[in-house]
Amino acid sequence: MKLKERARYDFLVIKLVETDDERYFLLKGPDNKRYLLPEKYYTVYGIMTGSVINCRIDKINCKGKVFLEPEHPYYREGNEYEFRLLEQQNKPDQNGKLLIVGDEFGLRHEVFVPGDCEISASMVFRIDKIKKGCLFLKPL
To answer: I need a surface site. Which of 11, 13, 20, 34 has the fewest CB within 10 A?
Structure first.
């Protein structure tokens, strides 16, 4: 079986492995090959040994290395969610503001909003994409 970019597949979490400087989930793919997923990006995902996680194939580079993005436990790309405003910074050179918002897990995310956007303590944004566990938000 050949994996395809942008497609989703189920992967079995075999175990957590440690190198000198990083920890990885060792996964078994639908093609029976093994893959490493860096743990540091997915600490709030609740990934456990023996579980099956659904991952998107983000990229397969020219050397054949496969980059996986597990399905987020709460957020979905293209959907809209409410976030708490934590901080804001004026960006007059870019005609807008940089907002720092908090998600359901207490993580912080940056989103640039145009100058005419109304700012409130709680705001709704669309999840444009999720990469390495990071939410890329778009104002509505």
So the answer is: 20
